Amino acid sequence: MEPKKAAITMLADRVLVSVPPSEGERHARSGIVIPATAQIAKRLVWSEVSAVGPAVRSVRPGDLVLFAPEDRYEVEIGSETYVILRERDLHAVASDRLDDETGLYL
């Protein structure tokens, strides 16, 4: 069951990110074609943040975050697919903001 045209608010430390485009075939630097079905060991991906919960401290909508594709839950909203993560599952944040915050949990 999908929500009817309602605003979606993320809860706690959850982060909603857009699904990165599938990479499909890739080319190695040497020119070798790597098929989309090739297994890549623990490859992290970048994706844009769409929404954050009230307990999220280091990430804002519009930031790019780095995460492991295996640690995710997918959800379809409208006709788009998103990923729900916990803030602690993020490995890095790329942002244009200049914050004095370290992003560390002390």
How many whole angstroms does the radius of gyration measure? Answer: 16 Å
CATH class of the domain at 14-20 and 38-94: Mainly Beta
- How do the strands of the widest beta sheet line up side by side? 6-7-1-4-5-8
Strand content: 35-45%
Order of helices and strands: EEEEEEEE
What is the average per-residue confidence, as pLDDT, rounded to a whole number? 78
Please, how many helices? 0
Task: Estimate percent helicity.
Answer: under 10%
CATH topology grouping of the domain at 14-20 and 38-94:
10 Kd Chaperonin, Protein Cpn10, Chain O
Number of strands: 8
> Sheet bearing the most strands, described?
6 strands, antiparallel
What low-confidence regions span 5 or more consecutive residues with pLDDT below 50?
none
From the 3D coordinates, which CATH architecture of the domain at 14-20 and 38-94 would you assign? Roll
Characterise this structure.
This protein has 106 residues and is mainly β. The strands form 2 sheets. It has a 6-stranded antiparallel β-sheet, with no helix packed on it. The chain is globular, with a radius of gyration of 16 Å. The chain starts with 13 loop residues before the first strand and ends in a 12-residue tail after the last strand. The chain has a domain at 14-20 and 38-94: 10 Kd Chaperonin, Protein Cpn10, Chain O, CATH 2.30.33. The protein is built from no helices and 8 strands. The model has no long low-confidence stretch (mean pLDDT 78).
Keywords:
mainly beta, 10 Kd Chaperonin, Protein Cpn10, Chain O, two-stranded antiparallel sheet, six-stranded antiparallel sheet, about 110 residues
